[in-house]
Amino acid sequence: MRYKLAFLLPFLLAPPLWAGDTLDIYCVDTEGGKAVVLLSPAGESMLIDGGFRTMEDRDLDRIVEVVRTAGIKQFDYVVTTHYDSDHVGNVPYVDVRVPGGIFVDHGPVMPGHKEVDLFTYYLRMIGDRKRLSVKPGDTIPLKGVRLTVLTSGGEVLSKPLAGAGKPNQACAAAARPDKEDLSENAGSLGLLFEFGKFRMVDMGDLTVGPELKLMCPDNRVGVVDLFMVSHHGLAMSNSQPFVHGLRPKVAIMNNGPKKGGAPEVFKTLRASPGLQDIWQLHYSPEAGKELNARDDFIANMKTVNCENRWIKVSVRPSGAYTVTNARTGFSKTYEP
After folding, report:
1. How many whole angstroms from its chain centre is CA 259?
2. Per the structure, how many domains does the chain have?
3. Helix (H) or strand (E) holding 332
4. Regions in the chain scoring below 70 on pLDDT
5. Which end of the chain has fewer surrounding CB within 10 Å, N or C?
6. Nearest residue to 228 (alpha-carbon basis) of 261, 211, 251
7. What φ, ψ does residue 166 adopt, rounded to 5°?
8. CA 165, 211, 250 angle in degrees (round to 5)?
9. pLDDT tens across 168-210, in order?
10. 335 within some domain
11. Residue 149 belongs to a domain with what CATH number?
């Protein structure tokens, strides 16, 4: 018996096969939609949005490919930032192939929403499974990663986070929108991810009005390492006070071949203090060679016959993280 125990001990003490030391984040190409897959070091997984529903299952197949690459069997959490078709339309179909455990959203549809049937289908899909409709200040218990809700359903964080709350100098010249935005974009569920010293913000399609409420006159979030560029890189989001207040080191833009990637947004990002690099899911014809990132930082170059390549971020507890372009294999590491 003693010999058997000695033989088995290394296996009994070994970590589970899914355990790792990095937070892995995959930005899936949904050609102008949104889908992000996360796998925590503790083995818990999360899908943020599901891209478009297409007859040929384009986005569904691409998400499943990334899921298999990451070794995920099911999603512990499925987060829907808002109920527009390019974000929630494909979620019920992903659920058939990769079931979700807990579903997270911003609650009822916004008053200006025109695709209410998508919300109805989303609720029908959840059935009797657990649903969390979160508010600013709430946290989502993804094991090993701290997720704080910054915006939800048109509301923004009312009090600064620890270490934040300083005046935002970029607010001085900011022009607030004339009308309140009641669209689903403005209702986007925005999240702060913290893993070790690493901080990342993903705001869905949040528009300028709520951005300014969150960041002006005082910055309630603080600075971040990585910014998932809002709204596919459209200029109705990504205001200067918001981006420059966050002071990201790296930005990843989930634009499509002919959607997003607005020249104004590239200029705002490049002027942001401390920004080192912009990574893109697609080359932006509108922005042109002078504003697009170098080819190594772009996952898909073609406007037709898309290569279907993703961008991966692997974050270590130290705060260092490596961004990899699946098209070229090119990667770059950023220190904390």
Report:
1. 17
2. 1
3. strand 331-334
4. 1-19
5. N
6. 251
7. -80, 155
8. 80
9. 999 987 888 878 899 999 999 999 999 999 999 999 999 999 9
10. no
11. 3.60.15.10
